[in-house]
Amino acid sequence: MNQKVVDEIIEIIRREDILRHIQKMDAYYHHGKVTTMWHCIAVTYFSLKVASLLKLKIQKKSMVIGALFHDYYLYDWHVREKYHQFHGFKHAKFALSNSKKIYPINPIEKDIILKHMFPLTFTPPRYKESILVSAVDKGCSISETLFKTTYQELKQAFDTLKLK
User: Fold this and answer.
1) Is-above-0.70 flag for pTM?
2) Which conformational region is residue 105 in: left (phi greater than 0), alpha (psi within -120 to 50 degrees), or beta?
3) pLDDT digits (tens, 9 = 90+) for 32-47
């Protein structure tokens, strides 16, 4: 676990005052036993880690905000409801709409949120931050679904935020 990356995410969460919004996602399971909140935190962490490893020049705050809110749709997609039928195709728009109600989303953040499901979104991501988050999101989703990843080490590293 790279504590420097964890600390950078915690600093942005605190500075932007978004913790209470992120915590709302803990009420919904995403894949397996992972809540949407922990999925989004994992995508954020691994996106920053990959960017660092590849020495990419990124808009760090925008990538963190976009990654944290990329699945901010705030419903249980496992429960059949007409309004979120075809969840894979539609949830990014719900996430963007909800995010805009609580945070001034910039163009990079918007692109991350709207296009993280590419190729289901048809329109490809425009920025390197959104390409990276989209790729990492797929990796995390596969890990959560097939390998039953629960991010225990990541949860311990984020303990200072008191997410529970």
Assistant:
1) yes
2) beta
3) 889 999 999 999 999 9
